[in-house]
Amino acid sequence: MNTAIERDTNIDANEIVESSTRHLSRKFAGIYDEAYIRPIVVESYKSFASAKIQTFVAVFTTRFADDRLRALAKIDGKIRNTMPSVLFVCVHNAGRSQMAAGWVRHLAQDRVEVYSGGSDPGREVNGAAIEAMNEVGIDISNEFPKPFVTEIVQAADAVITMGCGDTCPIFPGKRYEDWALEDPAGLGVEAVRPIRDEIRRRVVELLNDLGIETK
């Protein structure tokens, strides 16, 4: 992994990387040291170079690097996590996978670890998807499109793809499903509502299969 920001990157980038590295080094003390964490933070930062809202890049960077480090710690046997984990993958990580992750967080109430990612991440979460989820009391406006990474695929118990299954690496012993759902990109909220509701139905089935009861 490249461990440095390019020379022509402004100083704010280095400040973001150093601040995030310090924060995560405290959080993962005794598990990973700064030398291990920093290149993951750098890669995570670079994932948001084209993010539409640059104000939140520092937050996005830390959250994504945190997800990756937790996944790596699980793979390496450095943390014990008895909760099931689910990864939702679509093309842009801006609509379907974000709505699915939102439903899991809402319905499972911290009983499932949930990740999402895209094979070609967009610059922002779909506005109609945000509005449709707000209608059912779920706020996904603070989420952000990000790539899926191998360590999170490997750490997940269930991997749900939505139109990009061929790009997702396959690891033995995991549950893989492909949900054929219309892409909400370019659609208004009226057209997104049925997609939202179908995702809820499938998420409930998935959670029940994982032994998580929902209301």
From TrEMBL:
UniProt keyword list: Arsenical resistance
UniProt key word Protein transport: no
Disulfide bond among keywords: no
Family annotation (SUPFAM superfamilies): Phosphotyrosine protein phosphatases I
All copies of domain Phosphotyrosine protein phosphatase I, residue ranges: 84-209
Gene Ontology terms describing biological process: response to arsenic-containing substance
NCBIfam families in the record: MSMEG_6209_Nter (NF046112)
This protein's name: Unannotated protein
